[in-house]
Amino acid sequence: EIVLTQSPGTLSLSPGERATLSCRASQSVSSSYLAWYQQKPGQAPRLLIYGASSRATGIPDRFSGSGSGTDFTLTISRLEPEDFAVYYCQQYGSSQYTFGQGTKLEIK
Amino acid sequence: EVQLVESGGGLVQPGGSLRLSCAASGFTFSSYWMSWVRQAPGKGLEWVANIKQDGSEKYYVDSVKGRFTISRDNAKNSLYLQMNSLRAEDTAVYYCAREANVYYYYYMDVWGKGTTVTVSS
């Protein structure tokens, strides 16, 4: 089973700053199998990025994904107040999905 | 509008059973793999199970194998999760999610709002 480890656990930043979230896999992951989600309190997760770097429909271009192999990154170029939430990476392998434990992005 | 609406959650005693339902609308349900994903209180996301378009393939996370059964009724645009031998650690919000219908890409692009399952005596 591939384990995804996200860092940091909590990231404290101010609106307008740049956020860089990391997702590291215990084994190599196909980029096609790597996605990122945003979840706000009391809400369902929302797809942000699929295929490691493709933005989902309606996602602002301040969100970008990159990486390959075992290291993937979600970058938010200029934080807006609505971006403060929990972010999860997800991978698919051996007929199963696994998620990282999440990074909480909080207002500093 | 593409929509998934879960129902069937509630309070159940350890060892009991519950059946969750997910009603799909706004898209061709029979063309998509579907998944259940859960989230324990204050915890992260955990994929539970998924099912192929025609129901011929089903996969489960190890912790629910032999206890949970995923199924679907394409005529009713509905997804189900039969949960037996429930344990306290099954307490969670259960989300129904549509898997992407793009060859060689694996992700979930539509999510329901979830239904809460509480296992407690």
Task: Give a structural overview.
The complex is a heterodimer of chains A (108) and B (121). With 108 residues, chain A is an all-beta fold. Chain A has one domain (4-107): Sandwich (Immunoglobulin-like), CATH 2.60.40. Helices cover 0% and strands 58% of the residues of chain A. In chain A, strands 2, 4, 5, 6, 8, 9 and 10 form a seven-stranded mixed sheet that branches. In chain A, a hairpin with a 6-residue loop joins strand 4 and strand 5. With 121 residues, chain B is mainly beta. Helix content of chain B is 0%, strand content 50%. In chain B, strand 4 and strand 5 form a beta hairpin. The model of chain B has no long low-confidence stretch (mean pLDDT 97). Classes of the chains: A mainly beta (108), B mainly beta (121). Chain A binds chain B through residues 32-33, 35, 37, 39, 43-47, 50-51, 56, 88, 90, 92, 95-102, and chain B through 35, 37, 44-47, 50, 59, 61, 95, 100, 104-109, 111-114. Chain A: Immunoglobulins are composed of two identical heavy chains and two identical light chains; disulfide-linked.
Q: Report how far the terminal alpha carbons of chain B are from each other.
A: 39 Å
Task: Please indicate the percent range of residues of chain B in DSSP E strands (runs of 2 or more).
Answer: over 45%
Q: How many β-strands of chain B, per DSSP? A: 11
The protein's oligomeric status is heterodimer
**What's the main sheet of chain A like?**
7 strands, mixed
* Residue windows where pLDDT falls under 50 for at least 5 positions of chain A: none
> In which range does the helix fraction of chain A lie?
under 10%
Radius of gyration of chain A, whole Å: 13 Å
Q: Name the pair of protein chains with the most residues at their interface, and give those residue counts.
A: A-B, 24 and 21 residues
- Fourth-level CATH superfamily of chain A: Immunoglobulins
The SSE string of chain A, one letter per element, is EEEEEEEEEE
User: Can you give the mean pLDDT of chain B?
Assistant: 97
For the termini of chain A, the CA-CA separation is 36 Å
Unreliable stretches of chain B: none
Pfam families (chain A): V-set
Subunit structure (chain A): Immunoglobulins are composed of two identical heavy chains and two identical light chains; disulfide-linked.
InterPro entries (chain A): Ig-like_dom, Ig-like_dom_sf, Ig-like_fold, Ig_sub, Ig_V-set, IgV_Light_Chain
Protein name (chain A): IGL c2924_light_IGKV3-20_IGKJ2
